[in-house]
Amino acid sequence: MEQFTFCQLHTIELVLKPEGDERNWPSVITFENLLDRILGFKDELDMVIAKKLDSSYRASALAAYENMGMHKARSTMGMMTRFETVLPGYYGTKGAAIIQEHLAALYLHQDKLGRDVIAPQTAMEYLQQVLIPEVGFRLIREDLMNRDSRKRHEADIDDQAKRIMAESAAYGSSLHPVDWNDAISADEDSDDTNDGNDAGDFYGNIDDHIEQTEIL
């Protein structure tokens, strides 16, 4: 265990942090202001839910169901094969768990994710596989534009943000792993979401997967 921890810290300090610095990925995140930032995206998120705005993440999830089969795609290992598409990049699994908590309060606990919207996904699957990455790439897009205002006028800014989100997923999860104090289950008030995919279990499994594949 000590050897594993040493190897993990060694990789973070000597490999991941230098890569992040080189690629301009932030290593310090202000998680406390995520709710305000999410509220700034709410109109667009509402349009995604109403199917008035296309979601590449929804399309990816449905494609996985079709290609892998519903049962396999929903399994832990099925999700691990596409963790980069559901994590908010350099915000890490800690960021994902916090985003999930806020989105659950905004949508899940307000009964705004009806079967007509989410089928064939469950409410929790839709939250984790569609809404969280939709928030994630918007956070990164906002970061890009805040660093360089000229980015606002670039036609491919969404694609840039989505690419960074996928490429920085392992980096973010290594630097910002899920914190059990943040991993409040989003399914406390909803029987429909009681599928074992609470934030702690779900993102903890992803952290374990990343450690095994990226660190060792």
Helix-strand blueprint:
Elements: H1 2-22, H2 34-40, H3 42-49, H4 56-68, H5 70-74, H6 76-80, H7 92-108, H8 115-118, H9 123-147, H10 157-167, H11 169-175, H12 199-215
Helix pairs in contact: 4-9, 7-9, 7-12, 9-10
How does this model look, in words?
The protein is mainly α. The protein has one domain (2-215). The chain is 65% helix and 0% strand. The chain contains twelve helices and no strands. α9 packs across α10 (157-167). The radius of gyration is 17 Å and the shape is globular. The chain starts with a helix and ends with a helix.
Search tags:
mainly alpha, 0% strand, 216 residues
Count the domains: 1
Mean pLDDT: 83
Shape: globular
Q: In what range is the share of β-strand residues?
A: under 5%
Number of strands: 0
- Output the structural class: mainly alpha
**Sequence of secondary-structure elements:** HHHHHHHHHHHH
**Spatial gap, N to C terminus:** 12 Å
Helix content: 55-70%
- Major beta sheet summary: none
Number of DSSP helical runs: 12
| Residue windows where pLDDT falls under 50 for at least 5 positions | 185-197
